[in-house]
Amino acid sequence: MERLSVSKATLGRLPIYLGMLRELPPDEYSNISATTISKKLSLGEVQVRKDLAAVSGAGKPKLGYVTQELIEKLEEALGIKSLTEAVLVGAGRLGRALLEYDEFRKYGVMISAAFDCNEQVISLNGKTEILPMNRFEAYCKAHSIRLGIITVGEGSAQVVCDLMVQAGIAAIWNFAPCKLEVPKGIMLQNENLALSLAHLNNQLKNQDQEEKNGRKGV
Amino acid sequence: MERLSVSKATLGRLPIYLGMLRELPPDEYSNISATTISKKLSLGEVQVRKDLAAVSGAGKPKLGYVTQELIEKLEEALGIKSLTEAVLVGAGRLGRALLEYDEFRKYGVMISAAFDCNEQVISLNGKTEILPMNRFEAYCKAHSIRLGIITVGEGSAQVVCDLMVQAGIAAIWNFAPCKLEVPKGIMLQNENLALSLAHLNNQLKNQDQEEKNGRKGV
User: Fold this and answer.
1) Which pLDDT tens digit goes with each residue over B31-85?
2) In A14, A15, A55, B8, which residue has its Cα 20 to 30 A from B191's Cα atom?
3) Which of residues 150-179 of B touch A (CB under 8 A)?
4) Treating both helix axes as pointing N-terminal to C-terminal, what angle do B8-22 and B67-78 enclose, rounded to 10 degrees?
5) If contacts are CB pairs under 8 Å, which of residues 60-99 in chain B contact chain A?
């Protein structure tokens, strides 16, 4: 089966379509048009058509989409029926906040285990198991883990990153505020939360400045 | 003073330039060229020139930048000398993880207070004060707060958002996984952590698929 390449913006809207379609009374909506979907969600029709085309091709003229088929295509694109298992290293406050975050499953990923070297943290586990680091590599290999999340501090992030690569992980989501080195072919995505807030702050300052200039101009 | 508009990508690199420049021995580097900066940081020279031009104009031929002046321009662009105060509502695990996150200050923002309606959380405060919600509006007005962070659950996010707008907040960073309604002129930035992970997972699946197809082709 060929995988379709879906942009991040489209991907972000797929759970919205899916949630709405699942709640429709099935006897009233065996079919649904892109126009109806766009009205129900207050989204632009061009955008809706483009998003749905990326996962399911175009709807049929007059009939639109077969609702049940569209639901299945959306579930498939999101990987909901076959969740990808991820592991997390660093079960401090941020790590545990991510473990508690229920949204990942809606997007096809579950964090199946977390690891830490702190004994106190390990005994604190909630619904996801927190395991000691010496079990990391064996766990990843036994579960064929390809996706890893780094939530340790700056000081140990590179060591954890290297362990992940050695354990067969191919894509790393890094929250530590530092630059990590990965071998060619390993995907690295840095999450810089401070930068997101700084960017918002910058936009706010620019807006304030424009307003000030505007007032001066009057 | 005119504010320069700095892209998010450039903004993300400014602390890297600043950190490097601050560690230079001042007697050796009263001036520094973009070429030297790019070599020291393993960044492309074109990118370095563009980034620095956005905060400080072009360097002088042969001389480059006056190091101390460039440091000051970077600090100014990042707002480090006059930190913007932000407030956070929802001091659960994610909220407290953000309160502990030291990186915000490097980007010109400090979370000066957090609010929650849970008495137990309020008594747990660490270095940032956690206050009861009934003090929210007065605090924001007294401190002229313009920047708010929502880390409550989906169920109370809109209520908190409305309270923020009422208290004079003009830019909101929302972590709750839901669509919020804000009046015109209020900036809203949604942080969808699940989507970042899903996007990485999707890229990984695409890469696996390409490799599979490649092997078939041989």
Assistant:
1) 999 999 999 998 999 999 999 999 988 778 878 999 999 999 999 888 888 899 9
2) A55
3) 170-171, 173, 177
4) 140
5) 78-79, 84, 86, 92-94, 96-98
Number of H helices, E strands in chain B: 9, 8
d(CA B170, CA B24): 39
Residues of chain A in contact with residue B86, where contact means CB-CB under 8 angstroms, are 197, 201
Q: Please calculate the CA angle B164-B99-A189 and round it to the nearest 5 degrees.
A: 100
- Residue ranges of domains in chain B, CATH in brackets: 8-78 (1.10.10.10), 84-195 (3.40.50.720)
User: B62's torsion region: left (phi>0), alpha (psi -120 to 50) or beta?
Assistant: left
Chain A residues closer than 8 Å to B195 by CB? 8, 11-12, 107
Q: How far apart are CA B198 and CA A171, in angstroms?
A: 11
User: pLDDT: is B141 or B178 the higher one?
Assistant: B141
Nearest chain B residue to A179, by CA: B16
- Alpha-carbon distance of A197 to B84, in angstroms, equals 11
Q: CB-based contact (8 Å) between A206 and chain B?
A: yes
